[in-house]
Amino acid sequence: MRGQDAALFSDQNANNGLLSPIAVSATPDEHLYALARAFTASRRRLTTHLDASLFANPGLDIMLFLFAEGQGGRAVTTNACCAAAGVPRTTALRWVKLLQERGLIDGSDDITDRRVTMLALSDRARQIIRTWLTDITVVP
Question: Can you give the chain as a three-state secondary structure string?
Answer without folding.
Answer: CCHHHHCCEECCCCCCCCCEECCCCCCHHHHHHHHHHHHHHHHHHHCCCCCHHHCCCHHHHHHHHHHHHCHHHCCEEHHHHHHHHCCCHHHHHHHHHHHHHCCCEEEEECCCCCCCEEEEECHHHHHHHHHHHHHHHCCC
